[in-house]
Write a structure and sequence with these properties.
single chain; 380 residues; alpha/beta; TIM Barrel; Arc Repressor Mutant, subunit A; 2 domains; 40% helix; binds S-adenosylmethionine; binds iron/sulfur cluster
Length: 380
């Protein structure tokens, strides 16, 4: 018998102690709402509903994202992990990750999350400079973030650190020093994200009012370049635009599942998923408001209102957009529906944006730096 196809599971926990001014994720201020217990129960029921749609699968990853899942009751996380393992059984390894904010209060609960089955912590350090953290509206200091990283390193086998760069007036020298400091915290994985000014956020309004200006494209490109050089030199090879790992074993199975086009279930308010069902590969998105999500799951056993079957071209577009972000690229066989122009590809190879041959479309470092334009031109 062949092994069932892999499946990853994303769980969205929307609550945050404070809403950061740059964030456009589906978040809710945490006021210890009584509905939180009902949400945890609804997530388990939704997973059961989604498992009925996928049929047998081999679980490879569970990722608790948010919002701030480190605020949830570790017992609920344990129950959700157990449910996912039961629904998509496997004898193989399952990566279990949780996003955390680095406050002292949350670090105090890390051991309970490890006992619940979490092995990989993704810690939102963002910066180790108090002025930058204040600018970002974070609810922790740099010292707290350092302490949380130390606790996490002693409790979890795997630690990843998120950073945000390209802040107003950030210099290459300052960013280099920050990266070196973060490397010293002992994580196996670092995700440096360039600050994006998302529509509708407080930062968006501030930029429109000219309260501050993010660095221009040339300064941002210099900071991106510095990120690559400093992290590569320290053994953190990039395997995706914003993801660096100390060796292949430290790469995130969950991220790779997205980028390789594997199926993933998504539960919790505003979660997305891709499920291959008898009707074909299907995009799912759950209700965004907690109350709507819980009540839809109550009524239907599923948090998804309108699953959408993807046609061959839509699937290929998605494979191209995601596949070119990863250093391994994407097999050309998965892009057939796009009817790519061979002469155009040769032109991009000649310009140093794509690698030649090999049966895969692979962007070079130069190509990844202009990925939006490159993918746009290829799809057109
Ligand atoms: C959804 S957040 C959840 C993690 C956790 N709540 C936190 O804030 O640390 C995941 C990551 O996305 C990144 N992020 C969120 N909004 C961003 C933005 N506008 N620009 C760049 N990175 C962003 C941050 O690095 C953050 O750690
Ligand atoms: S960045 Fe993290 S803590 Fe801040 S609002 Fe977004 S999800 Fe919540």
């Amino acid at each position: 018998m062949t092994d069932p196809a892999p499946i990853a599971v994303y769980i969205h926990w929307p609550y945050c102690s404070r809403i950061c001014p740059y964030c456009d994720f589906n978040v809710v201020r945490d006021r210890r709402q009584p509905e939180q217990a009902a949400l945890a129960a609804a997530i388990i029921r939704d997973l059961q509903g989604q498992a009925a749609l996928t049929g047998p699968r081999r679980l490879v990853s569970v990722f608790f994202g948010g919002g701030t899942p480190s605020l949830m009751d570790p017992d609920w996380a344990g129950r959700i992990i157990e449910a996912a393992r039961r629904l998509w059984p496997t004898d193989g390894p399952v990566e279990i990750s949780l996003e955390a904010n680095p406050t002292d209060a949350e670090a105090g609960r890390f051991a309970a999350f490890a006992a619940a089955g979490v092995q990989r912590l993704s810690l939102g350090v963002q910066s180790l400079d108090d002025a930058q953290l204040a600018f970002l509206g974070r609810n922790h200091s740099a010292a707290e973030a350092r302490r949380a990283a130390l606790v996490a390193g002693s409790v979890f086998p795997r630690l990843s650190i998120d950073l945000i760069y390209a802040l107003p007036d950030q210099t290459v020298g300052g960013w280099r020093k920050a990266l070196e400091e973060v490397i010293a915290l002992g994580a196996e994985h670092i995700s440096p994200y360039q600050l994006t000014i998302e529509a509708g956020t407080a930062f968006d309004r501030a930029v429109r009012r000219k309260t501050f200006a993010p660095p221009g494209p040339d300064a941002a490109a210099d900071l991106f370049e510095t990120t690559q050089t400093v992290l590569e030199a320290a053994g953190f090879g990039a395997y995706e635009v914003s993801n660096h790992a100390r060796g292949a074993a430290a790469q995130s199975v969950h991220n790779l599942a997205y980028w390789r086009g594997w199926d993933y279930a998504g539960a919790g308010p505003g979660a997305h998923g891709r499920l291959t069902m008898v009707t074909g590969r299907t995009a799912i998105a759950t209700e965004r408001r907690v109350a709507d999500y819980v009540s839809l799951v109550d009524q239907t056993g599923l948090g998804v209102r309108a699953p959408e079957t993807l046609d061959a071209r839509e699937q290929a577009v998605e494979r191209l957009l995601l596949g070119l972000r990863v250093h391994e690229g994407v097999p050309l066989t998965e892009l057939e529906a796009l009817e790519l122009d061979a002469r155009q590809i040769e032109g991009f190879v000649a310009d140093g944006l794509l690698l030649p041959g090999g049966g895969r479309l692979v962007a070079t470092a130069k190509g990844r730096a202009v990925l939006d334009r490159l993918t746009h031109d290829l799809i057109r």
